[in-house]
């Protein structure tokens, strides 16, 4: 067994899943000798030029894909043209990438690295935290950008508060109230169709920010007030979340020499990180003040995430609070919109869900299936990534350490061989028994990973699921939702986003 797994098993603070992973990997044999493998350079893929790598394929006119290429289609073309292992040279000093299209190959690379999952990317945020904010953060860098020991220390501290279902469920009454307030606001604005068609994203982001802020800070932010001003800090937080994704895409996936000179996009992202940091810090400081003024302790399960973490490590509490206010807005809003769209365009499923909601059943089986099916069709993050920390032999090819291995999970989740009628919204596939042709378990579990993989998977998963289920429940119980227009469009810039107009129509449900 390798040294990472041995260390993992010795470390008592690591989760059970860690140990299970170790046992699982131990039983496998991936030991094709490297000398028998085909060399890394022989992996097929797009042709590449010095410095700019494969970028010329994305240029106007001459590029085979062009500048407006849809990443979903690019991935599909790579698969069809080059097969199950595809190489893409890094652009401007970025690491080379390998796309894996066989679940077994992804499993091989991701699982063996499970004790030390490396997920680089977001280099600008890493630079901001580790260089610009060095003196403030003093070695605690958050989950999104940290690797190795620093990541593990942080994650071990925050895992229980954020992932234990029992602890997360205590936020349900507050989140239900927020869902109710959002629906009341929708009732007031729904008939202004031109406003809703343009501003649906900002309306739904108000709900997702209000919800995640409530869980993080234990109080209401006030995003749902009808007279929310442009200067309200919540507006700025929502804008930051969007600008960070947009600008990070330009800086990290398109050629931009920000590592050598200060470019306008670089200055913009640093300013945005500053604003995001300042506002979240203000909110966290007020939370701390409120706790001090209260002067007495409340039961552990009633505390907000920040309050729980303040008792463990102050810097961890501040950074986790700030990450929640960054990572918990657009992700959750996108998934709720995804679900609403699929329910609006599949009225029979919507009816069935309403019946379950009104039946008073507590198991919510159909609700869960509706959410899983929406996530299968559109992952917020369409591909997962791990950087190799050792040599691998995959599909007969040598993949050395330092390569970004991409699992194109959203693309795989829409292949007929894994899910019959793959582009249809069929929540039932998550409910039918083994043996049924639609049974979800016919696809290997690693095909569909909307929340990522293993111990580095999304820390906000339980919170997101709870927020979305309560919101959808209130929406579907109140409204009959239809979609009156052509199919919705999705763009992918690091994460998926829907494009206006939003042709939802909301009628009070009988
Ligand atoms: C439906 C909503 C969401 C989806 C689909 C989603 C998806 C993801 C994915 C795919 C990853 C990468 C995991 C990996 O590399 O294996 C991730 C990481 C992360 N997510 Fe989420 N996310 C969602 C909501 C949230 C929320 C609400 C929060 C905060 C409360 C959050 C905070 C984070 C953080 C901090 C990480 C980095 C974890 C680490 O590296 O240890 N996410 N998420």
TrEMBL record:
Its cofactor is heme. Belongs to the cytochrome P450 family. PROSITE patterns: CYTOCHROME_P450. InterPro entries: CYP11_CYP27_families, Cyt_P450, Cyt_P450_CS, Cyt_P450_E_grp-I, Cyt_P450_sf. Keywords: Heme, Iron, Metal-binding, Monooxygenase, Oxidoreductase. The keyword Metal-binding applies. It comes from the Eukaryota. This is Cytochrome P450 CYP12A2-like. GO terms for molecular function: heme binding; iron ion binding; monooxygenase activity; oxidoreductase activity, acting on paired donors, with incorporation or reduction of molecular oxygen. Heme binds at residue 458. The keyword Iron applies.
């Amino acid at each position: 067994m390798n040294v990472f797994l041995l260390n993992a098993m010795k470390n008592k603070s690591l989760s059970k899943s860690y140990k299970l992973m170790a046992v699982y990997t131990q039983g496998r044999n991936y030991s094709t000798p490297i000398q028998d493998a085909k060399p890394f350079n022989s992996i097929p893929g797009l042709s590449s030029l010095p410095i700019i790598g494969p970028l010329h394929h994305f240029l106007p006119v001459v590029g085979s894909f062009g500048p407006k290429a849809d990443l979903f289609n690019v991935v599909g073309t790579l698969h069809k043209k080059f097969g199950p292992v595809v190489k893409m040279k890094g652009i401007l000093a970025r690491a080379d990438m390998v796309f894996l299209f066989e679940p077994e190959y992804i499993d091989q690379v991701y699982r063996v690295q499970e004790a030390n999952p490396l997920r680089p990317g977001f280099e600008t945020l890493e630079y901001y935290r580790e260089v610009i904010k060095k003196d403030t953060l003093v070695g605690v860098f958050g989950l999104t950008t940290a690797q190795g020991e620093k990541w593990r220390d942080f994650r071990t501290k925050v895992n229980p508060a954020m992932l234990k279902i029992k602890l997360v469920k205590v936020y349900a009454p507050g989140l239900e109230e927020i869902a109710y307030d959002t629906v009341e606001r929708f009732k007031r604005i729904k008939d202004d169709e031109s406003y809703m068609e343009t501003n649906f994203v900002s309306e739904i982001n108000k709900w997702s920010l209000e919800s995640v802020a409530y869980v993080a800070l234990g109080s209401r932010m006030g995003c749902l007030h009808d007279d929310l001003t442009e200067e309200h800090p919540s507006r700025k937080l929502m804008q930051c979340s969007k600008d960070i994704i947009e600008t990070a895409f330009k800086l990290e996936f398109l050629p931009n020499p920000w590592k050598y000179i200060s470019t306008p996009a670089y200055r913009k992202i640093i300013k945005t990180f500053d604003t995001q940091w300042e506002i979240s810090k203000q909110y966290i400081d007020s939370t701390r003040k409120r706790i001090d003024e209260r002067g007495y302790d409340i039961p552990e399960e009633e505390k907000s995430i920040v309050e729980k973490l303040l008792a463990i490590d102050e810097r961890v509490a501040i950074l986790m609070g700030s990450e929640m206010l960054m990572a918990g807005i657009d992700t959750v809003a996108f998934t709720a919109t995804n679900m609403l769209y699929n329910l609006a365009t599949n009225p029979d499923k919507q009816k069935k869900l309403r019946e379950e909601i009104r039946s008073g059943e507590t198991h919510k089986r159909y609700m869960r299936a509706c959410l899983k099916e929406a996530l299968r069709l559109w992952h917020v993050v369409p591909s997962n990534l791990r950087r190799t920390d050792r040599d691998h032999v995959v599909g007969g090819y040598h993949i050395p350490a330092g390569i970004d291995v991409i699992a194109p999970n959203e693309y795989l989740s829409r292949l007929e061989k894994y899910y019959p009628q793959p582009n249809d919204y069929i929540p039932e596939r998550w409910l039918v028994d083994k043996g049924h042709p639609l049974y979800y378990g016919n696809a290997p579990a690693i095909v569909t990973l909307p929340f990522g993989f293993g111990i580095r998977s999304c820390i906000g998963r339980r919170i997101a699921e709870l927020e979305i289920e309560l919101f959808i429940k209130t929406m579907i119980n109140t409204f009959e939702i239809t979609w009156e227009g052509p199919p919705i469009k999705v763009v992918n810039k690091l994460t998926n986003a829907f494009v206006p107009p939003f042709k939802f129509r909301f009628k009070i449900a009988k």
